[in-house]
Amino acid sequence: MLASMETTACSQESGLWLASLRSLSFHQSDATSCISFHPFDLPGDLVANDSAVPPRTPRRRFLLHERAVQGAGPEQIRQALWRVGWPQWSLRVVPSGEIFGGAFRLLEFDQHRPLVYVDGHFVGLFLESADDVLASYLSSHEISPFAR
After folding, report:
1. pLDDT digits (tens, 9 = 90+) for 18-41
2. Which residues of 48-73 are buried (b: 16+ CB within 10 A; e: fewer)?
3. What is the CA 83 to chain-centroid distance, rounded?
4. In contact, 53 and 45? CB cutoff 8 Å
5. How far apart are alpha carbons 17 and 127 in whole angstroms?
6. What global pTM score does this model have?
7. Where does residue 136 rank: exposed (0-12), middle (13-18), buried (19+ CB within 10 A)?
8. What is the Cα–Cα distance from 93 to 71, expressed in whole angstroms?
9. Which distant-in-sequence residues (6+ apart) come within 8 Å of 32 by Cβ?
10. Residues 6+ apart with CB under 8 A from 6
């Protein structure tokens, strides 16, 4: 599953993999759904300047913390709302009084086990152990009721 370009195993036994943005794009394009939480800024794929719809768009659910939305400029908000108009994408905002962990993306696939991407300051990390995937799945369900 994780044999894409620029994905390097940290430890096959631990289920941790270093990841570049290129490898994230590779796995995201293969996913059937993606739930992501962004506490500090809007994700790049939500505010990219291109107006073309990707050839294969998985179901996406963006959970954005209110501070991420407040820090965005008017053009970024316009782009985000335009993209959320795509049939399979949704956006929910978590009020500023609620605090959860850092950013993550939970990717689900038809042919493979789920995979979690955790964004780091310099490099991302893929998590594929059942415990890590379950923790992210539970986090997304814990965050969702607070989102408007």
Report:
1. 887 788 888 888 889 988 888 888
2. eeeeeeeeeebebbbbbbbebbeebe
3. 15
4. no
5. 7
6. 0.75
7. buried
8. 13
9. 58, 59, 108, 109, 110
10. 19, 20, 22, 23
